[in-house]
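If your schedule permits, I should be very grateful for your opinion on a structural question. What I wish to show you is a protein chain and, alongside it, a tokenised description of its three-dimensional fold. Would you kindly read the sequence against the tokens and tell me how you understand this chain to fold? Here, with my thanks, is the record as I have it:

===
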Amino acid sequence: MQVMVLTGGIACGKSTACKLLREFMPGLVIFDCDAAVSALLDSDARVAGEIRRTFGPDSLDAKGRVDRAHLRAQVFENTQKRARLEQILHPLVKEECLASRDGAAKEGADLFIADVPLFFEKGFDIGQHHVLVVATSRDMQVQRLKARDGLDDALIESMITAQLPVSDKMSRADVVFWNEGPPEILRRQVRRFSQAFTHDPQ
């Protein structure tokens, strides 16, 4: 089984690329780290308790669930707090990712891809053979974050600068999907990649 990592900058289009990969390569298995984080924040009582102890009672809402907006505002303005949150979440996510990879291998999958936003920043090694990067310009990242999440300029800046520059990720990638233009451009790139992987002449 081939093991790959897909990464890139925030708002570069990793989720869109994953949807296209599933469309063109239906036999692959994808592990989504962001989805794993969301599940932990929404439904893991241990994580909620650790976040409350670390970030205070205001980090949870009235129902005892993690208040994401409150937490995001804290961690992107304070590198120490962000590191502490990562210490809580990242080991659990990596454990799930490796279990998913091993399960895919046992089921006979041809390809396993982990969608890992902070792959380069955190050294999230899963025994991958290749690294795929979805990239776009910084201006486009800002436009998409404003349109998608309605964030203010200061928070957008802190979120982008918390990651390695996209150009650095591109230079370390085995494959780059450039996602700046119309959606069809990305679609064509992912289709070509899937055809090359499967040796499909169509």
Q: What stands out?
A: The chain has a mean pLDDT of 93. The first helix runs from residue 14 to 24. Residues 48 and 64 are 8 Å apart (CA to CA). Strands lie at 2-8, 29-32, 111-115, 130-135, 175-178.
